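Exercise: predict the fold of this chain.
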Amino acid sequence: MDRATGNMKVSENLSNPDADAGAPAQQHSVPHRTRIKLCGLSKPEDVAQAIDLGADAIGLVFYPPSRRSVSIAQAVELVHDVPPFVSVVGLFVNATPDWVREVVSNVGLTLLQFHGDETAEQCEALASVAGLPWLRALRVAADTRPADLVKSALNYSAASALLFDTHVEGYGGGGKVFDWSLIPAELARRAVLSGGLSAQNVNDAIHRVRPYAVDVSSGIEVVGAKGVKDYARMAAFVRAVRAADAE
């Protein structure tokens, strides 16, 4: 794998949910393994813990207004010992091409996450600057309808995956749950489910949505301390996901 360019086989991470779509029928009896992204990591110990727990992806926030944001220098240190086949996802919010270019020129990202108000065209242009695949966060509000999500999925058809998050003031990380039944079944294969997930509710979420992956940030933090990860809660979350897959 070349982390500088993002050139790697990604059949086991978040950027290629359809990698096994053409597998022989007899292999479909293998239990589904929900991929896990632990986001908003800001310390080397956070990353080490995520890797030890078997996370498929770690998320780094490159949105300065966020209390979970990391600098380029911090990110370089964070990704230094990330092993092969663990995706490093860079979260951007309404970023400029220059900012994306600066980050990817220094940090070994494997996937971009656009979490702002980016149009499909802007996402593709920024991904082209980076030379990396991307996923798009779709914020689900109280008045969102399943048809709205299908329309957005078609609009962002070039995305490797769609991350469904709760619509809150600001851009994500609010720890709020949305109505999971709004996600149409036909989108589950591309879905990264986010928004208020925790060890207490992720089992139910997986059984109801059957997403390709789950994404957690506030649900693995010290209560009342945004950006400070709680290793016991991280471990509990991963155990809950694996338990759901085994049922």
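Check your answer against the key: Residues 231-246 form the longest helix (16 residues).
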